[in-house]
Amino acid sequence: MSRIPGGATRIIQGVQRFQESVFSEKESLFRRLSEGQSPHALFITCCDSRIDPNLLTQTEPGELFIHRNIGNQVPPYDCAGGVRATLEYALKALDIHDVIVCGHSKCGAMQGLLHPELLRNMPAVTQWLEHARAILPAIEQAAARSPEEKLNLAIERNVVLQLEHLKAYPFVAEMLSAGKLRLHGWVYFIESGQVTAYEADKGCFLPLVRASK
C-alpha cells in the first residue's frame, strides 16, 4: 500500500477497506453501474467537507449526479464554465428532470461574502463569490439581526439567487416552460440534520417534509 503521511493515510486505508469489504457487498450494483448511469437528480452543493449528499439523501451510487463548488454557485449563463457543462450533460445526456441547489449552515463562503476581510488572501474565492454579491442589499436591510441570523439569511438568499441564475439558462428555461424540469432550493443544517426547502409561492423556506406534502 502506498505510504503518504498525514490525513491521506486515513483515506488510503478507507480505499483498502472499500476494496476488501464494501465492494464485495455491493458488487452487483457496481457491475450494473459499469454499464451506464441513470441518476434521479442533479445535486448542486458546496465543497464543504461536512456535507455528504448521498448520506444526507440516503441514496446509493448512481442515484445522484453531483456538482460541488465553493458556495454552491450557479454563475450566469455567459460565464458558467464547469457549472454549465455539468448542467448540459445532466439535462441533455442523462435526461435528469430535477435539479437541487443545496446550501448549508455555517457556510464559510457566505461568511466571507459578508466579511470580505476574511478573504483578503484568497482572490480567486473573492472573484468566484461575485456570483452571489446581489444578495448583499437584502442582508444590509436586516441590520438589526444577529450575526448568526444574517449568515442564515445570506445562505437562504444565495440559494434563491442561484435558482434565478438557473432559470436564465436557455435550455433550462425551455425545459421549465415545457414542464419537463423541476428546480429545488434546499438548506441543510449541519448541527441539527434539518433540511429546509424554498417555497416560491410563499417566498420562504420550510422544513422539507412539510414543504414536500
In words, what does this structure look like?
The protein has 213 residues and is α/β, with parallel strands linked by helices. It folds into 2 domains: 1-36, no CATH class; 37-211, 3-Layer(aba) Sandwich (Beta-carbonic Anhydrase, Chain A), CATH 3.40.1050. The chain has helices at residues 7-25, 27-33, 53-57, 82-93, 108-114, 123-128, 136-140, 147-167, 170-177, 208-211; strands spanning 41-46, 64-69, 98-104, 182-188, 195-199, 204-207. The relative contact order is 0.12. The model has no long low-confidence stretch (mean pLDDT 94).
- The number of helical elements comes to 10
Number of domains: 2
What CATH calls the topology of the largest domain is Beta-carbonic Anhydrase, Chain A
Task: Decide which structural class fits the backbone.
Answer: alpha/beta
Provide the CATH superfamily of the largest domain: Carbonic anhydrase
Strand order of the largest sheet: 2-1-3-4-5-6
Describe this structure in a few short sentences:
With 213 residues, the protein is of the alpha/beta class. The chain contains ten helices and six strands, in the order H-H-E-H-E-H-E-H-H-H-H-H-E-E-E-H.
